[in-house]
Every structure is written in structure tokens, then in C-alpha cells.
Amino acid sequence: MRALIISLILVSCSVSGCLEVPLKECPEGDCFPLSSDSLNDILSIQDSFNVLKLADEHEKLRISTSSKIEIQDQIVSIDWSVGKDESSNLSSIALRYNIANAAVDTEVIEGSGITNVRVGNVWFEGRDAFPEFEDPFYEIARLASEDPDGLWPPFSIDTTEFDNIEWQITGDLISLQQVATGTNGTHTIILELMGAPPMIVGIEIYDGEGSDFSLSVETGESATIILKDNLPKTPVQFIPDNNSLMYEDIRIWSNTIPNGISEVEPSELEFHARVGDFNNSESLSKMIFEDVLTNVTLDDETWWEFYWMDVDLDQLVSGGDYYNIRTNSTADVTISVFDKWADKWTDDLNI
């Protein structure tokens, strides 16, 4: 599973003057709630919030966004939710995407030997033979820098675009919540701030024409990630490339296993050369990955050779490993992988 330019979520990490003393000593209108000028001073700081700094400061963190934009007379809705819970070594990335009649709604929770995968409203259990917790905010930042044109959460907002607005600000002293509402002439902006010094935990932007945006920040117990158990099992996400080459009457399938899949014990996966349609097929030949290299001659004197190379020498099937399948058979086959742990074909879309 596992894909957001990271350099936002507005937060005011420090405010000069009276916010550093007890609230009861603050001049009215200058500290709580903030004055419009005080809020603009915060927003005028270039890159006033750095999501990686926020990730460093909070053991439990979740950032969610919702965007609606119009593309060629179609309303596109994209929702992201990215979270981490270092107390459990778990991370979560969820994406919901809707355009016309097409929709994607999925979530992956990982970081332990058991993973959770959600498709729509249904949860499945996956596994990871070599679990490693990686802060998803740092991971997303790295991936976004490698592929800036990819689809990533819109976590980057220039706060200086909001620093010259006349804000209407209300506050609740008990909860230390403040809500600021303003307009820049084309958009209505609503900011929610919590705590002292105040941290922006919510942003809403409306243009009145359907292109809306909202962002929320959760920390502490509200950002806890819970791993579910006793779920239906889902196979590893590795579907072999079925484009073959011919070399001196030998058909060859050769490629690397895609990066991003969970590591799997080689005793749990099998290569198969299948004939027939998906629901009514049989295997002409097969090899369990644990055997590394297998050469089988069939009754019709055709032969099949399967080979898996553990490129990174981790003794696990993982991204970047190499495979090579050769045969002199002319049968119309599909190269598939059977996941013995999940008891399913990896190309079975009915998970």
C-alpha cells in the first residue's frame, strides 16, 4: 500500500507578549480571543508551520483533508487521512476519491506483523514478515520530493495569503478554542485554533462556486490507531507482469517485484502457469518461491523453468526482487501468484 506534498498545516507555535503569561493578565482583545492584528502577525510568518516539526512534537497525530474541485464540468471529491501512533508503532493512510461514477475508498494500517486493509467499508487482514514503523509524514515528504507530480494530500498552504484579512474571532476560555472567520474578497476562510499558545487545528476555505477545502489536525488520544484482528485475509499485492518475450522459440517472463509490497515468507507464495479462464483454470506447472529455482518437464515434453532471486538477501519475497520464467510451451497461459497464507490468487480482485 502505500500515495502527498507535505509542508503544511497551519500552526501558530509561538505568539509574542501576553500569551506567555497567565490568561487573566492579558489585555482584553489582545490575547484571548486573539485580535485580528495578532492573528495576522502569526499568519504573516513564512512557513509558520512545518508538518515534519509537528510530527516530531506529537507521538499521536492525524491530519485529514477534504477537497472539492470542478474539472470539465465534473465535481471531483478527494479526501485524505494520514495518521501515526508511535505508542503502537502504527501508521495509517486513507484515500477516498470520487468523480462521476468512479470511486476509490481505501485505507492501510501498518507497522506490525499484521496489517489492516480497508476497501470501501470492508476490512481485511494482511501481514508483513519484516515490520518496520516509518513516520508516514516523513515517508510522504520523501515520496513527494521524488515524484512532485504524483497524487499527494494537499498539506501545503501558504499562510501569508491570509495575513491581511479583517478577522472576526470568538473564543471559549474553558476549552481554549478560538474560531476566526474572514474573507479575502473571493474566498471565505474559517480557522479553528486550540490551546495557548494557539495552534491552528482546522481550516475551511469556500469560494461559493463548489471548490471547497477543509483540513483538520488531531493529536493525543483522538489520533489513536487501533489494529483490528480476526479479519478475512487478503493476499500480498503482487501481480506478475504477463507481457512475455520470445527468444529462439523460448517464451520469457522477466521483471522485478514492485516496491511497496509487504515482505512475505517465500514458503507462502507460489508461481503458477495457468490455462483457462480465472474461475475455471488449471496449472500446467508451478513453483513455490522457497525452492528458488525449479525446472519441470511435462508429459508432452514441454518444460517450464521458474526462478526467484532474493536481490536484497533478506530471505523474504520483497520489492525489488527479480523473477524469471521460461518455457518452450506455446500454450496460452497466465502467470499468476497464489498466496497460500491467504488461500487466494493475488490477481483475484474479489478480496
Question: What do these coordinates show?
Answer:
The chain is mainly β and 351 residues long. It folds into two domains: 17-223, Clam (outer membrane lipoprotein receptor (LolB), chain A); 245-345. The protein is 7% helix and 41% strand. It contains three helices and 20 strands. It has helices spanning 36-43, 51-57, 136-146; strands at 60-71, 74-85, 90-99, 102-110, 114-119, 122-127, 168-172, 177-183, 188-194, 199-206, 212-219, 245-247, 250-256, 269-277, 280-288, 293-297, 303-309, 322-327, 334-339, 344-345. The longest helix has 11 residues, at 136-146. Mean pLDDT is 87; it is low at 1-29.
End-to-end distance: 15 Å
Percent range of helical residues: under 10%
Strand arrangement within the widest β-sheet reads: 6-5-4-3-2-1-11-10-9-8-7
What's the number of extended β-strand segments? 20
Order of helices and strands: HHEEEEEEHEEEEEEEEEEEEEE
Low-confidence segments, given as residue ranges, are 1-29
CA-based gyration radius: 26 Å
Total domain units: 2
What proportion strand?
35-45%
